[in-house]
TrEMBL record:
It comes from the Eukaryota. Keywords: Methyltransferase, Transferase. InterPro entries: SAM-dependent_MTases_sf. Residues 11-27 have a biased composition (Pro residues). This is S-adenosyl-L-methionine-dependent methyltransferase.
Length: 396
């Protein structure tokens, strides 16, 4: 897992700020143990072709960038938007070594340095995206009933690791909860804060490389929100198994960008329906699936690696504050704030570099998607799935 770039994370970016602590919310969970809220799409076949322009059934017609140019910018009908909710939405949208910092720049957005990994991770690592990730973290935390993990961890665990830690929000909260546990958070971008609990440190590390952590070492290995980042999940799970202590736990939480809907309010030619299809196709083209939660990758992969005692849980994350239930509404509100605060950042690399859309096509498409989310007529949600499992107590 080590790279020449492996190091302790350095100074925070000048404008970085401490993560906001999650706020309380009203209880009620849609989580359902072991069963899917809606059937997901069939596992996509992996396409070796990477790059713009390869036509497919899913990217024709309404799913092409040209279609969105023909549509023009969306008309904003004030009657369509609940003004009270609308104002809620507006007001909630708040807020080394030198080669590691040698970020790639595409259309004014920065991405991780090519010196850290051979792969190209699709999300920017600049302040705009980091701000969005902070809000995503809060929405996910609410969705999971304010639980940081699902595995039955003992209070006296000693060593844990967070793979692809991002800005380290989860890692900081976990380190606070387990002050006697040494936690390491790894990532390919040095975007972690310098201030953090004394039992936490960060390392720049590519999780797709051979892990150099000790064998049989970690009591807990946490993997979260790495869709589109990993080509070979089986290989990563095997590394995790090797470095996990016998009796220790691994946990992988991930999602799919496919928008699901239970009440037929999602038109197939909507921007929201298009979004999931284009993201899924882009993941296929780069050979790193973005639809982990739908692909059925987690359970068999962890089982093949040797983990036992596997458990699965799924959640529906409303994509805007359309639900009536107050807790679901709040989750949706944060999700809306996260997505709309940097939708262009989420789609730019995949839609443009991989699928070949123009900047104008992306801009108009994003305006339609934001408008659909704001109107809340579409009762869509994203699916998150966690699978956790244990290394056998008697493993060698
Ligand atoms: C969407 S963020 C998720 C951050 C955090 N795990 C969370 O759940 O909020 C994905 C993170 O994975 C990191 N990443 C992508 N590819 C990686 C790799 N090969 N090894 C380690 N980290 C990686 C990215 O830099 C980014 O910070």
């Amino acid at each position: 897992m080590s790279t020449p770039a492996k190091r302790k994370a350095g100074s925070p970016p000048p404008d970085s700020a401490p993560p906001a602590k999650p706020t309380p919310f009203s209880p009620q969970s849609p989580g359902s143990e072991g069963k899917s809220p809606t059937p997901g799409p069939a596992s996509p076949a992996k396409s070796p072709s990477v790059g713009p322009g390869s036509p497919s059934a899913e990217t024709s017609g309404a799913f092409s960038g040209a279609h969105w140019i023909q549509q023009g910018l969306p008309q904003v009908d004030s009657d369509d938007t609940d003004s009270a909710l609308g104002s809620d939405i507006e007001s909630s949208t708040v807020s080394i070594s030198s080669s590691i910092l040698n970020y790639r720049t595409i259309n004014g957005r920065t991405y991780h340095s090519g010196s850290v990994t051979d792969g190209e991770y699709w999300a920017p690592n600049d302040q705009k995206m980091l701000g969005a990730l902070e809000i995503y973290y809060h929405s996910i935390f609410l969705m999971m009933d304010e639980q940081l993990f699902q595995a039955p961890l003992k209070d006296d665990i000693k060593h844990a690791i967070d793979i692809g830690t991002g800005e380290g929000f989860w890692a900081i909260d976990f380190a606070d909860k387990f002050p006697n546990c040494e936690l390491v958070g790894t990532d390919i971008s040095p975007i972690q804060p310098q201030w953090c609990p004394p039992n936490l440190h960060f390392e720049i590390d590519d999780a797709t490389k051979e892990w150099t952590f000790k064998e049989n070492f970690f009591d807990y290995i946490h993997i979260s929100f790495l869709n589109g980042a990993i080509e070979n999940w089986g290989n990563l799970y095997k590394q995790a198994y090797r470095c996990c202590k016998p009796g220790g736990w691994v946990e992988h939480l991930d999602c799919s960008p496919i928008v699901s809907c239970d009440d037929e309010t999602l038109p197939p030619d909507s921007a929201l329906a298009t979004y999931g299809k284009i993201m899924a196709e882009a993941g296929r083209r780069i050979g790193r699936s973005l639809t982990i939660a739908h692909d059925g990758t987690q359970e068999p992969g962890l089982k093949d690696a040797g983990f036992v005692n596997l458990h699965t849980k799924e959640w529906k994350q409303p994509m805007s504050p359309w639900p009536k239930d107050p807790k679901q509404k709040e989750i949706g509100l944060y999700n809306y704030a996260a997505v709309t605060s940097d939708l262009e950042g989420v789609i730019q690399f995949l839609f443009q570099q991989v699928m070949g859309w123009s900047t104008e096509e992306i801009t108009i498409f994003a305006a339609h998607m934001r408008q659909e989310m704001k109107e809340q007529k579409i009762h869509g949600y994203w699916t998150w799935k966690v699978v956790y499992g244990q290394k056998p107590e008697d493993a060698e």
